[in-house]
Design goal:
Elements: H1 11-16, H2 26-32, E1 37-41, H3 48-59, H4 66-69, H5 78-84, E2 90-94, H6 103-120, H7 130-140, H8 146-150, H9 152-164, E3 168-173, H10 177-185, H11 188-203, E4 209-216, E5 232-235, E6 248-249, H12 250-259, H13 266-273, E7 276-278, E8 281-284, H14 286-295, H15 309-316, H16 320-330, E9 335-338, H17 345-348, H18 353-362, E10 367-373, E11 378-382, H19 386-402, H20 407-415, H21 419-437, H22 445-458, E12 463-471, E13 474-482, E14 489-496, H23 504-517, H24 522-525, E15 532-540, E16 543-548, H25 549-579, H26 584-591, H27 595-602
Parallel strand pairs: 1-4, 1-5, 2-3, 3-4, 14-15
Antiparallel strand pairs: 6-8, 7-8, 9-11, 10-11, 12-13, 13-14, 15-16
Helix pairs in contact: 9-11, 10-11, 16-22, 19-22, 20-21, 25-26
InterPro entries: AAA-ATPase-like_dom, P-loop_NTPase, PDDEXK_9
Pfam family, one: AAA-ATPase_like
Organism: Tepiditoga spiralis
Amino acid sequence: MKRLPIGQSDFKTIIEEDMYFVDKSLLIKEVIESGNVLLITRPRRFGKTLSQSMMKYFFDITQNNDYLFKNLKIYKEKNIIEKHLNKHPVIYITFKDLKSNNLKKMHDLLAMELSRLYIKHEYVLKVLNKREKAVFNKIMDREALDADYENCIRSLSEYMERYYGKKVIILIDEYDTPIQQAYLHGYYDEIISLIGNLFGMALKDNVYLEKAVLTGITRVSKESIFTGVNNLKVSTVLNELFNDKYGLTKEEVEETLKYYELEYEEDEVIDWYNGYNFGGVEIYNPFSIINLVDEKKIGPYWMNTSGNYLIRKLIKEGTVNIKDSIEKLLNGEKIESKINETMVYGDLHINSNESIWTLFLFSGYLKWIKETKEGYRRYTLAIPNKEVRMFYEDTVLLMFEEENIQLDNILINLINGHIEEFKEDFQKLTMNTLSYFDVSGEEPERFYHGLILGMSVGLKEKYIIKSNRETGLGRADVILIPKDKTDKGIIIEFKKFYKNEKTLLNSAQNGLKQINEKRYEEEIKNYGINDIIKVSIAFDKKEVEIVSNLDKEEENNERKDLEYELKLKSIETAKKLKEMGLTKEQIIQATGLSIEEINILYK
């Protein structure tokens, strides 16, 4: 059997070493027949780098790679083979390693990558004049001005066209990596001008350009990167262009598993790795399928790779709407959002729902099901498969683990009827962790909705969690229905304090009143559970007031305990009076005991 290409994205190595290769070579034909400047966006590890590598070896005029393609589908396209196989000068550059937490290092990494590019094509010095050579050498030595770096890809295309007498093909892999890094580490505005000018000069009105293909996760817009590039053709997960050329189709998955004689449950593979919709084609995650074959067992392979940090950050710091939507997604529901194919990283900072869901969709953490309103770019979205669902669940639990919040422990006192201890623990919790969930300090509800989200994940083994569902005559914030019917059901209502309520206690009492008046307990009772704890939590920033139906029960218990203690004292007094020889009537008058109680005493 052929070796699996795990961790290998160099096309030549895969073919020469006869590794297993899913033939996507007809992508080359589609690229040739498409626009002059192509931008292809797909999630990470869906074959973008391998495809760019394949096209580099196909077009590169400096090589003779006929043997690499003779057994592939593209080789049957004789006209394309004759006109294009190793017939074009190629500029190939990857930005996948441009990752840095500061601007200076990013600038150095970019200069290093451009220096390597120039060193590789040093032969063009033969056709350059003295001034051109001087700048060329400075770029190789990493001593050039920013303006020279910004213009260097365009200049190199001019020099290569001069050298070969043919226009150039430019291939840029993972073009948006430095942009995402800059956003994450706070130097976004500084890097965007440099990157924008680099691409703009290379792609806009470049008379030396035959074709350009850029790949990345998102289409970055409003940052001048593609300003004026009016011949740009874009392929995203939403449109049909190249829709079956990245990732694996169902037929390709079946063929792969059959080749490796792997016995599997089709439904299980579908549940774990299918679900992606690329321009109307059903797509499986290729990275996970390859690792499934290698390990011969189901597992969250794609989720265990790098690249999740930004998504985790957006979930943690998300608004109430974001957290509510993630809860719905985890419950198997769908959400609806406008999707802007031109990604605006700057809008992520203000928690723009549109930008966040766009990033989640293009990054592979959501799938689109249908366009809900044609022409308005509104789509129905859902979690694509079980592997991605596990990522969401793990992310939520990690948020609580980082703050050492044990959701089970929060509820133990409540379930046991120790309401005062529960109040104390919950108030400490909000004081210590509110800032963690509410980074902006402007929306304290994030903490409480984050808590609900955590409950929906962390307590799912013990409870059926329902949040903001129709129950009785209204909508409860969270309902916990125990799977063990001997346990108690729990209703929690969160109330934001408003000044007209005068006090936080009034606000909490209003919440409890709402639970009763709206009959939120009806859904729990439908499960055959009648022992229900009702809690109203009112908050004003970090201040919290809690009331519940257990408050009244505790008062009754305390009253009963006091009455019992008084009764015991009266009985002890009666005993002494009896020993002193007082009559029953005198003892009743002195102790307040009844004649029945006195008779028992005499017996």
